[in-house]
Amino acid sequence: MRLLVIEDNRNLVANLFDYFEARGHTLDVAPDGITGLHLAGTQSYDAILLDWMLPRMEGPEVLRKLREDFRSEVPVIMLTARDELPDKIIGFRAGADDYLTKPFALPELEVRLDAVLARTRGRNPRKVLEVHDLQLDMATLEARRAGQVLHLYPACRKLLEVLMRASPAAVPRDKLEYALWGDEPPDGDMLRSHIYELRRAVDGPFEQKLLHTLPRVGYRLSAPAAGAP
User: Fold this and answer.
1) What is the sign, positive or negative, of the torsion defined by CA atoms of 40, 41, 45, 48?
2) Residue 110 backbone class (left: φ over 0; alpha: ψ -120 to 50; beta: rest)
3) Which of 54, 108, 62, 57 lies closest to 81, judged by CA?
4) What is the SS3 assignment for 66?
5) H-helix or E-strand containing 144?
6) Could you tell me what percentage of the chain is helix, strand and coil, using 3-state DSSP and rounding each to the nearest 5?
7) Fewer CB near the last or first residue (10 Å), C or N of the chain?
């Protein structure tokens, strides 16, 4: 598994790394909520271990934004000392797949991870995003339109994923910039350059256009209207 640990307790993080890396898994860590949200929204993980009490943004808010803004379905287990029923309800309503109270035994966490992954993979085993004749396979990261493989740079692929998850809704420019660069977008209009490359790959060889610019708003990826040329 590739796991993201969003946790500010260094001792717990060290224990998680020791335990799961010894079993062949790969871990990334974020010490605060905003960093964790950026990694969770822009990288691909098998599961996320999310603390509740975090600097800069608390765990439930991170989870809500991940589910609503990024449309992510990655399994999330909340790790927290909050053991009251109202807290658990808040966690599950924010989008948690499981809820484990501290202190906990690492073998129990491992078993819960296996169970959550088995359930989520059963719901969506292929994880293929589709809009009209455009597909993005989240397992292989291969994009195709009308059966033709599209060659995308990583930044374009990330933009495509965000736009496809939101489709047919529009995605504001600031959300697309956040997906690529977090809180530190580069100077200049680099987003426009990436959108140009994405449009050339997705729409260039095809008669029907899927990627649309909404002036002063952002961009939308949507199927052609019925009867459109």
Assistant:
1) positive
2) alpha
3) 54
4) helix
5) strand 142-145
6) 40, 20, 35
7) C
